[in-house]
Every structure is written in structure tokens, then in C-alpha cells.
From TrEMBL:
It comes from the Bacteria. Residues 70-151, 361-431 form the VanZ-like domain. Residues 1-18 have a biased composition (Pro residues). This is VanZ like family protein.
Length: 450
């Protein structure tokens, strides 16, 4: 007879070891790596080597000899801005790990300087690229500035912001969404984020301002009417205004109060952004934008006020329709230029090839706008179903962007560019990721749609 359980000689089974949970790299580390890859790609495109290679020492000697030449303010700003995200991600990651501000900024600066030196060395033997000591210095400065901001965000701003977001997501989910969305839109409007304190720039901005809706500028210039751009602006603010209206309804606003408060909030915010643009060269302060914002927000507020008991989930479909109309008009207009299809320029299939030929700050502003335009798509698709992943949003964004570029093949006034499809995928992914992060902050999965 074999011994049973409890007998001293009964074999005791060993506990099965728990599976080791492997953790991937920190998201900030991944973002820093992506920033580095983008910098290498963007600063070496179009990848055309010179016919006769130049010794690296000779290339750097020429760069040092040319160092006293002063680069333009636009180039300096572009080089600083290009490396700021890299420095911010590195310092934020180190700050979250417990590193101090000096060490984090020095590490971010060192990585930025090393990467910049490597890129400048590659550029010695690339056509249409110039190795520059000034670029190396400005890139290092950008990494240092980004490092300082990143450390502050990681150690001070984020520990305050995340609990505040969790409280807002739990108590007033739609209000927290409306605040983040409108502030984010306002930041994108200021792209490429190069302010100026020069009195001459301010005087020029005031002369270019248009204080009367649909009227001339202060110096008498009257721009050509652009009804398609006006339609896009009104539709965009119809989408944001609808979110603000739902937030006002969440607070208890009804009827006339809901409509009036929505108009005041949206128009006031837009007017503030227009005034701030006076300090950003290249932007035009225009009262027409305030009127179009008010019109779009009024339409959405009236729709929400008329049906006060309609769940927010029911507005996802109309929101997608408004977004689609705005993106289609923006990407396909003017519609009177349609004709026989053209073939796609093979160079436009390479990401960011066209951006190489644009002024750096203009390219940055365009890219920011393209990404931001697709954020609502990813967000709304993710809000429809808990099973919808950010990756699915990215795929949908790419499909939408590629479809717009395909339509542009029939428009003689537009140039199809597959870069925009990749930017659309990024924007849609950010929208889907933002919703999931917002839910993890404490909001009910159904809160954006209740």
C-alpha cells in the first residue's frame, strides 16, 4: 500500500515557478529612439552620395573654416526645434528614474551632440547637404533646452498633471476631454512654434492683421476669398464646439444657456489664440477665424440643445461625418481643377522627400497640421468600441490619408504625397492611444459615449 497524503514519506509536489513577466522598454526610451531615427532620416534625405568622396577630415576642415558665416534665423530655429524632442524624451526618462536636473540635461546634450556630429559627418559625402559647425551647436542647444523642459515635465509637471487628469476623467470626463482637445488645437495653431520678441516683427504682424471679419488687413491688403478654407475651419470648430457643448451639458447647461456658454468659450478661446499669433512670425491674426469658429460651434451647440437627452455615444457617427467632410474638402479642394488622372511622382512615395525642399519651419507646421487633422478619426473610432486598438486606428488613418492622395491624382492643382498618408497614420494612432490613456486615467470606458 502506497502512503497517502499526510504520511511522512508521501512526496510533496514542488510548486510550479511563476512565469517571469518580461517588460519591454520604457515608452520614453522608445520615443527617444524614434526621434533619433527620424533625425537621421530627415537630415540625410534624399540619400544621394557625391561623385567623388571627400575625406572626412577635409570635410570637417571646410566646415570649421565656414563657421564664422552666420546662418539664417530660420535655419537656427529649425535646428533647435529638431533636437528638442530627443532631449526632452531622454531627460524625462532619466528624471522619472530619479536623476537630477543637471545630470539629465547634460546627458541629453551629450546624446544630441553625438548624434548631430554623426549626422554632420554623413553629410560630408551627400549631395545637397552641407556640414555645418553652426548646425552642430544649434542641435546641441536644442537637446539641452528639450532636456530641461523634459526633466521639468517628468519630475514636476507630470506628477501634478496625471492625478489632476484622473480626477477630471472620473468626475467630469467630457469637460476634461474638451479642455485637452481645445488646448491641443491651440498649440498646433502656433506651429512651427518660433516666437519672436523683435519689435519689427510685431509691427509687421499688426500691419498684416485683419481686425474686421472678411475685410482687409490693417495695411489695406485684401486677400482673395477662400470659401473652401472657410468651410474647413467652420467644420473643424463644429467638431470641437460639439465636444464643448457636451461638456457644458455634462455640467448641467440646457437650452439657451448651453448654446450661449458654448459660443462664449469657443469664440473667446479662438480670439485669444489669434492675439497670441501676433508674436509668432508667419501667422496672420484674422477676425474671420473667430466668426467661423462661432458659426461652427453654434451649429453643434444647437444640435446638442435640441436633443438634450441623446447619449453622447450617439454623436460619434455625426462627429465622424463632420470630420470626413472637413478632411475631404481640405485635401481635395479646389474642386474645379479636377480632370484626367495623373501618375504619381515616384519621389513622392518616399516619406518626407517633399519636405526636404520646403523651408524647415514651414515643413514643421505642415506636418503638425496633417497629424492633428487625423487625431479625431483615431479617437472617435476607438470610442465606438473597446476592441478597437490604436494600431487599428493607425491603419484606418493610413487608409484615409492614402485615399485623399489618390483623389489628388485627379486634381491638377494638388501634388499627391504619400508622406501625408504616414502622417495621417501617426495622427490616428495618437487619437486612439489618447482615448485609451484617458480611460486608464480613471474614466469609465463608456464615459466618452454616455
Amino acid at each position: 500500500m502506497s502512503p497517502g497524503p499526510g504520511h511522512p514519506s508521501y512526496p510533496v509536489p514542488r510548486p510550479r515557478p511563476l512565469p517571469v513577466r518580461r517588460r519591454g522598454p520604457h515608452p520614453l526610451t522608445v520615443l527617444a529612439a524614434l526621434c533619433g531615427l527620424f533625425i537621421v532620416y530627415g537630415t540625410t534625405i534624399p540619400f544621394e552620395p557625391v561623385a567623388e568622396p571627400i575625406p572626412l577630415a577635409e570635410g570637417w576642415r571646410r566646415a570649421v573654416d565656414a563657421a564664422p558665416r552666420r546662418s539664417s534665423r530660420t535655419d537656427r530655429a529649425a535646428n533647435v526645434l529638431l533636437f528638442m524632442p530627443l532631449g526632452a524624451m531622454i531627460a524625462a526618462r532619466l528624471g522619472r528614474a530619479g536623476a537630477g536636473p543637471i545630470g539629465s540635461v547634460l546627458a541629453a546634450s551629450a546624446v544630441g551632440a553625438a548624434l548631430s556630429a554623426g549626422v554632420e559627418t554623413l553629410q560630408i559625402n551627400l549631395q545637397m547637404r552641407v556640414t555645418s559647425v553652426s548646425d552642430l551647436m544649434n542641435n546641441t542647444i536644442g537637446s539641452a533646452i528639450g532636456g530641461g523642459l523634459g526633466w521639468l515635465a517628468g519630475r514636476w509637471a507630470w506628477p501634478w498633471f496625471w492625478p489632476a487628469l484622473k480626477r477630471g476623467a472620473a468626475t467630469h470626463p467630457l469637460a476634461s476631454l474638451a479642455i485637452v482637445a481645445t488646448v491641443g488645437w491651440g498649440v498646433i495653431e502656433l506651429a512651427p512654434f518660433v516666437p519672436s520678441a523683435d519689435v519689427g516683427d510685431l509691427k509687421s504682424a499688426v500691419k498684416s492683421a485683419r481686425p474686421i471679419p472678411f475685410g482687409p488687413s490693417v495695411d489695406g491688403r485684401r486677400p482673395a476669398p477662400d470659401p473652401w478654407a472657410w468651410a474647413v475651419e467652420a467644420l473643424s470648430w463644429s467638431l470641437l464646439g460639439g465636444l464643448v457643448a457636451l461638456a457644458v451639458r455634462e455640467r448641467g447647461g440646457r437650452g439657451v444657456e448651453l448654446v450661449a456658454e458654448t459660443i462664449v468659450l469657443t469664440a473667446g478661446f479662438r480670439a485669444a489664440v489669434e492675439l497670441v499669433q501676433l508674436g509668432f512670425p508667419g501667422h496672420v491674426t484674422d477676425a474671420t477665424s473667430v466668426v467661423l469658429t462661432s458659426a461652427g460651434a453654434t451649429a453643434s451647440a444647437l444640435a446638442v440643445a435640441i436633443r438634450p437627452r441623446l447619449p453622447a455615444r450617439s454623436w460619434i457617427g455625426p462627429g465622424l461625418a463632420v470630420w470626413a467632410a472637413a478632411v475631404l474638402i481640405d485635401g481635395a479642394s479646389p474642386f474645379d481643377a479636377f480632370g484626367r488622372p495623373r501618375s504619381l511622382d515616384p519621389r513622392m512615395a518616399f516619406p518626407f522627400y517633399s519636405y526636404f525642399w520646403s523651408p524647415p519651419t514651414s515643413a514643421l507646421a505642415t506636418a503638425a497640421e496633417k497629424v492633428a487633422s487625423m487625431v479625431p478619426l483615431g479617437f472617435l473610432l476607438a470610442a465606438r468600441s473597446r476592441r478597437w486598438t490604436p494600431a487599428a486606428s493607425a491603419l484606418s488613418g493610413w487608409a484615409a490619408g492614402a485615399s485623399i492622395e489618390a483623389i489628388q491624382l485627379f486634381n491638377a492643382s494638388r501634388t499627391p504625397d504619400m508622406t501625408d498618408a504616414f502622417l495621417a497614420a501617426l495622427g490616428a494612432w495618437l487619437g486612439g492611444r489618447a482615448l485609451r490613456s484617458w480611460e486608464s486615467a480613471g474614466a469609465s470606458p463608456s464615459s466618452p459615449t454616455t
